[in-house]
Specification:
Elements (H helix, E strand, L loop, with lengths): L46 E2 L5 E2 L7 H4 L7 E4 L4 E4 L5 E3 L3 H4 L1 E2 L4 H8 L19 H7 L13 H5 L23 E7 L7 E6 L6 E5 L4 E2 L3 E2 L8 E3 L4 E4 L4 E4 L11 E2 L1 H10 L13 H5 L28 E7 L8 E5 L4 E3 L14 E2 L3 E3 L2
Antiparallel strand pairs: 1-2, 3-4, 4-5, 5-11, 6-10, 7-8, 8-9, 12-13, 13-14, 14-20, 15-19, 16-17, 17-18
């Protein structure tokens, strides 16, 4: 499995099989005795109903109600023009180049050989060729703050410094002072794409993860530090998959009467998870966007999730393998909610021919419990 992910320096893998317990677990349990990967809060602090109106009576158990995760923490060194993420330990480039330098992911020549363009024969090997004047070589050659071990971040690492509750600039602009209103390159290529698509992360207004052809000149933000190890999943015999890196328990045994993975409107999805009793646990809830993103496995294809999960929605048109998060969209769009598309690993709050993200439309549901 490809290593990714949110770039944490070290992980002490605790074995967590609480899904096997016969004792119900309180929703306020924080499981503080384990050294889990610390997933961040999304930044959402208010609750909204399916119509986008703010709810203050705690009747909707959404992201704003639970605010699961740890608070973001950064340290900026103005003299070195770098930002350290105190949660992951990763150091990020933040000089003027981070908004001025534009590079392609790969050269036109490599791209043409990758996709078989302009009469060339398709060459799969060339699809991962980032040699030449590209974003990857820029980071490899960068010396900043007396460091020369910079690299192009993975989509998971770049995604982890995004904020999904801001109207403009989906990043902390107090510490990251050099941000361009555009998509930034990641090192993660879509392994299934015959068009040579590469994942890009948007730091302007919406905070989408999207894909683009590798020849488009885009800004680059380099990173340095150790990569996070792969997630370690354990499936128990009670329909629960435990992620021993995050401490999260994931529902993986559910169907409606037709035998299909459950699909519900957003508010119904929240209520369904709140009432779920599975694997000896009653502390289930609809996951927030960052928790749901942690399931994306870029080494897999349609669905992009570890094969230990046996109950997944079928991908590929006309099927939709999009799952609700409990996180409402950015201000002004609270009648929508973020969802993750496990067909391609992207996330949106407004996408698809049937306007997925609209809280009144049904999407798939996978409940979560536990965490830190």
């Amino acid at each position: 499995m490809k290593t990714w992910i949110s770039g944490l320096v070290a992980i002490v893998m605790g074995v967590m099989l609480s899904g096997c317990s016969n004792k119900s677990v309180s929703k306020t349990d924080k499981q503080s005795n384990h050294n889990y990967v610390k997933l961040k809060k999304t930044g959402q602090t208010k609750s909204y109903n399916e119509h986008g109106a703010e709810v203050t009576d705690k009747s909707i158990k959404d992201d704003g109600y639970y605010q699961s995760g740890v608070a973001s923490s950064y340290t900026r060194d103005d003299s070195k023009e770098v930002v350290v993420d105190n949660i992951t330990g990763l150091m990020w480039q933040d000089n003027q180049d981070a908004r001025k330098v534009l590079k392609p992911w790969q050269t036109e020549e490599s791209f043409n050989e990758c996709v078989g363009k302009n009469g060339k024969k398709r060459n799969i090997r060339k699809c991962s060729d980032t040699s030449g004047d590209t974003a990857a070589t820029y980071c490899d050659n960068l010396t900043l703050g007396n460091y020369n071990d910079w690299r192009l971040p993975s989509v998971e690492e770049l995604r982890y410094i995004m904020i999904h509750s801001h109207r403009k600039y989906a990043i902390n602009t107090t510490v990251f002072k050099n941000v361009k209103p555009a998509y930034y390159w990641t090192s993660t290529r879509d392994l299934d794409s015959e068009e040579g698509f590469v994942n890009v992360a948007g730091f302007f207004e919406h905070g989408y993860i999207n894909q683009d052809e590798g020849t488009t000149p885009r800004p680059v933000r380099c990173v340095r530090g150790n990569r996070k190890a792969d997630s370690h999943y354990v499936r128990n015999n009670k329909g629960v998959v435990v992620d021993n890196s995050t401490g999260l328990n994931w529902q993986d045994e559910y169907s409606d009467n037709s035998g299909k993975v459950k699909s519900l409107k957003w508010k119904d999805a929240i209520d369904y998870c709140e009432s779920l009793s599975l694997g000896g646990r009653t502390d289930w809830r609809l996951p927030n966007l960052i928790e749901l993103q942690s399931l994306i496995d870029y080494s897999q294809s349609a669905p992009m999730i570890n094969p230990v999960f046996k109950n997944t929605a079928e991908c590929g048109y006309p099927n939709i393998c999009r799952y609700w998060s409990s996180s409402s969209a950015i201000p002004g769009n609270e009648d929508r909610a973020w969802f993750v598309d496990f067909d391609n690993g992207e996330h949106y709050y407004n996408g698809g021919y049937n306007k997925d993200g609209d809280k009144s439309k049904p999407l798939h549901v996978r409940c979560v419990s536990g965490g830190v």
